[in-house]
């Protein structure tokens, strides 16, 4: 069992059925003490029930044991050796304790950086595998690509026909408007001719 202190809060990490989202804070969770005085801590009742049912944590995808067994998390590293519990008695030394606390913080930073690097390498390898799968599927299903190309060309032809029809309709509308204007021109001329004598008579009356 491991106990870590962060900002005056003690977090007890349990290895069995440990999940990614839950941490066992002091005073929380479930503690089971076996007859040989070994303690098992659980963050919630879900983990405790699986433990009592004697389930294998490596078969559940939400556990850290499964992720480490599947290679999804960093499992082998020198930083994990610092977390092991040592039963050797050590005489109290203030300088030693101060250096130990500083080393713990530094070890946590190194461990976090290595986890992030491991994650990036895993994602890079996964992207390469996905690309290989995509290329293999493309090689197997070339006919589907040809069909998609034909469908795309037919769609482009249909759109071209629609645009041509719209352009022809606009041209017809413009021609109809021009014809209407030409038909209305004689009537407008007659109205203008009628209006001119009226203006002349009005001017003569005023004069």
TrEMBL record:
Keywords: Ribonucleoprotein, Ribosomal protein. It holds the Pfam family Ribosomal_L24e. One of its GO terms (biological process) is ribosomal large subunit biogenesis. GO terms for cellular component: nucleolus; ribosome. Residues 26-76 form the Large ribosomal subunit protein eL24-related N-terminal domain. The keyword Transmembrane helix does not apply. Residues 155-207 are annotated as: Disordered. GO terms for molecular function: structural constituent of ribosome. Residues 172-181 have a biased composition (Acidic residues). Gene3D superfamilies: Ribosomal protein L24e (2.30.170.20). Residues 198-207 have a biased composition (Polar residues). Residues 182-194 have a biased composition (Basic and acidic residues). Belongs to the eukaryotic ribosomal protein eL24 family. This is Ribosomal protein RPL24e. It comes from Toxoplasma gondii RUB.
